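During the first year of the project, the team set up a workflow for recording each protein of interest as an amino acid sequence followed immediately by a discrete structure-token representation. This format lets reviewers and collaborators read both layers of information side by side without switching files. As required by the reporting guidelines, we include two representative entries from the current panel. The first entry is reproduced here exactly as it appears in our internal archive.
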Amino acid sequence: MKRIIIKTDITDDEAGDVAARIDDILPDDYEISIEDVTFWLHKITTHQSYGGPEEGGWWYDAEAPIDPDDPDYMPPIPFSDKEKAYEACRGCNHRERERRETLGTGYTSVLSYRETFYSYTVTESEVFTPEPRPHYE
């Protein structure tokens, strides 16, 4: 038996309708499972990384997960509601910006390449995966 998992944030009634419609077009050896989407709030580090020498050199924001042994580590927080996850993320980022301004930290130019700060992001995965290095064009 092959299994298809559909992650969605629709209501149970809508999910049943979707499953019935998909079931009508799939072969008999498939099973459908509809699961709620969980949104995860992650606390991550953000720093500037050197992108390359083009046009005199360029820098980009690089993100990385925080090591669980780090005293500032925060385990990912699950949310079933996307809007509440993003609302919490905006609130956490606002407080982090205020904290950095109070301490006088944070980078303002490429000369601050060694400055690392915390930020928050929302993903649909419990494990945070950083974006790859951007490509210069």
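The second entry, processed by the same pipeline in the following quarter, appears below.
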Amino acid sequence: MDEGHDAPTIALAQPHERHKPWPALLTGVTTFALILLISVGGFLFAPSDATAPQPPANVDSLPYVDGVLVVVELPDLVLDAYDPINGEQELSFKVREADSQYFDVVHLRAHSSIGLPTRLFYEEEGGQRWAVYKEDAPANSTTSK
């Protein structure tokens, strides 16, 4: 049965090409976009090495009010207070140049845009409220001092 060199050649079946649901270019672009998105997200949400400014020494003796900021245009701040002060629900504050280091506008606008509670420590002189320091208010806060 062995016919040697005279045997008919047997043709090998060609391998089937695999079906690729995504072209290689699209897969590469998608991978790059995903890596870029993860990198940017890691950069934006990673803890900062910058140290926050220390609050003023007298902050514990200052009155404060909790509420949601509705205007953040330094030197002007407007707070929708949880508890009205002297019958006023919407309280206007000014920020002195010396105290502006305690007010991160980007952070305050983020609070304002999603309604996060903010606590403002302030002084009052001649009918004008001066915001001296701010901190994130407790989520269940409904008080003023």
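For the second entry, the following points were noted during internal review. The domain at 59-136 is CATH 2.40.50.140 (OB fold (Dihydrolipoamide Acetyltransferase, E2P)). Strands lie at 64-73, 76-85, 88-95, 118-125, 128-136. Both points are flagged for discussion at the upcoming steering committee meeting.
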